[in-house]
Amino acid sequence: MIRKLRKQDWFHEDGFPIVVERRDPQQPFGLHSHEFSEIVIITGGKGVHLTGEDSYELVTGDTFVIGGERPHDYLNMDRLRLINVMFDANELPMNFSDLNSLSGYHALFTLEPAWRKRHMFNSRLQLTPVELIEAVRLADQLEAELDDRAAGFGVMATTTLLQLVTFLSRCYSRSRNPQSKSLLRIAEAITHLERHYSDPITLDELIEISGMSRRNFIRTFESIMGSPPIKYLIRLRIRRACQLLQQTDDSITRIALAVGFSDSNYFSRQFRLVTGSSPRDVRKQNA
């Protein structure tokens, strides 16, 4: 039976959703999964990363993300050293500002974990020595805030984690690995949706950006993102509309137009399908 690591056993008693754990060296642990996600940065040595039935060689600079439900372990360790940055994405502002506009973010945090088996781990992020130094510096800064827990540590730790996530995402965007580039093409289609959700966007436009066949793109997008591309676009628009309903006094019709709907009645129907409430109800609740 695969052991599942629980938040209450690994996170601070105050419930703050970020933890830094250093393994210097990594010790035998056993196959396990988590109730949280983690960024793994290999800082030295080598070993084998086991993910259920598959195993992959690890070397210094390898950086990857493990989702909560994905079991993993380390074998054949030769002075393997690593940093685990554990976090609960559901309790953090992972949609902050323009983070979702980075193709490297979607590639590293969503696409690479989903395609790890297909790509045999070859699309992982491989940090250069200079990039590794900067990633470790940010992890050190994050760990110091979490250790001190001085007033305001929550803000500092959250922003430092977002700095680390952004830095790693930019590193992935610069990757020259052919398989990483193939993930970045799909990520660019997702990024296009995030950046231009209020503009008219067609499926053919997204397919062209991805460089994939129509059938393969739709199937891949839905399997990774959980919905077809156009349905994902509608959800993006509704999410932004919710923010505008709560943050502005603009009319519902004006908000519908602002997020990309040309028909306010169609907007209201889609809004209710996605949220279970009407735009008017959401605004009243916020008031």
Explain this structure to me?
The protein is an alpha+beta fold and 287 residues long. It contains eleven helices and eight strands. Strands 2, 4, 5, 6, 7 and 8 form a six-stranded antiparallel sheet that branches. Strands 1-3 form a two-stranded parallel sheet. Strand 4 (37-51) and strand 5 form a beta hairpin. Helix 2 packs across helix 4 (153-173), helix 2 (103-119) packs across helix 5 and helix 5 (178-195) runs antiparallel to helix 6 (203-210). It is globular, with a radius of gyration of 21 Å. The N and C termini lie far apart (49 Å).
Radius of gyration of CA atoms, rounded to a whole number: 21 Å
> How many β-strands, per DSSP?
8
Ends: how far apart? Answer: 49 Å
List low-pLDDT spans.
Answer: none
N-to-C order of helices and strands:
EHEEEEEEHEHHHHHHHHH
- Main sheet? 6 strands, antiparallel
Estimate percent helicity.
Answer: 40-55%
Helix and strand composition category: alpha+beta
Morphology call: globular
Descriptive labels:
6-stranded antiparallel β-sheet; 287 residues; alpha+beta; 11 helices; two-stranded parallel sheet
